[in-house]
Amino acid sequence: MAALEQDILEGSLRPGQRLDEQALAERFTVSRTPVREALTELAARGLAVQQAHRGTFVADMRLEDVFGSYEVLAELEGLCARLATRRMSAAQKSELQQLHERMGHCLDAAQRSQYIELDAAFHHTLVAGAHNPSLEEHIQLCLHKIAPVRLGSMHSVTDMATAHGEHAALLQAVMAGDDAQAERLMMAHVTLRAEQVRDLAAVWNARRQAPPSPAQSTRKR
Question: CA-CA distance, 213 to 182, in Å (whole number)?
Fold first, then answer.
């Protein structure tokens, strides 16, 4: 799936282009089952669209919708941080602390994937700590809408120590019971990530609009 995701984000697979299972199976020298599973995962992340009786196609993502979802997410996660500061159990606060400490050992590029997993768990723990299912539902909807570019933006971050420092300040506010500060810090944290996505999207759009190179058209993996 990683290779297909890269092709979509780089623009060698264009919006609306059909993703043929048999052709992809031959390209990757695998059976159609793992290809079908990869296409389902891409569809779940918003990178592809599956249409009954027609097949799977590269999604035509509207980046303005992604940016709008980030603006909403900043507000929702800010509210989540405020509520979680007031409502988290001692066990949830301990889990948040442990996740932060583990992330501190994953700041080099070689451990980027592990950091991203821990980052998701850190945010999920705060969402759970707000004890508001309706809020969680709306946050999940926003996360689904930004999924096509969110992972790429996190892989593009070069200064992981800064991101970790933002989490440290947020954690300190939560532990101190300062719900207003926790809300402000979370909103700033998500807003900064949105700006990183804008930078990534500018490069991504340029790649999509450029004609595929001969190497992209013929390369095999």
Answer: 47
Spatial distance between the Cα atoms of 81 and 123, rounded to a whole number of angstroms: 9
Domains within the chain, CATH numbers bracketed: 2-60 (1.10.10.10), 63-205 (1.20.120.530)
pLDDT digits (tens, 9 = 90+) for 58-87: 887 677 777 888 899 999 999 999 999 999
Give backbone dihedrals phi and psi of 57, rounded to 5 degrees, phi first: -130, 150
Residue among 159, 158, 156 at smallest CA distance from 203: 156
The DSSP H or E segment spanning 57 is: strand 55-58
Q: What's the token pair of residue 95?
A: 């889990």
> How many Cβ atoms from other residues are within 10 Å of residue 195's Cβ?
12
Instruction: Write down the residue that tokens 């590269």 correspond to.
Output: 58
State how far the Cα of 216 lies from the Cα of 208, in Å rounded to an integer: 12
Q: Which pLDDT band holds residue 173 (cuts at 50, 70, 90)?
A: very high
Q: What is this structure's pTM? A: 0.70
How many Å apart are CA 84 and CA 132, to the nearest integer? 9
Confidence class for position 219, pLDDT limits 50, 70, 90: very low
Pair of tokens at residue 56: 């799977």
- Distance of alpha carbon 43 from alpha carbon 58, whole angstroms: 9
Q: Are 146 and 165 in contact (CB under 8 A)?
A: no
Looking up tokens 């092709």 gives: 7
According to the per-residue pLDDT averaged within each range, which of 62-66, 118-122, 157-161, 198-202 is highest? 118-122
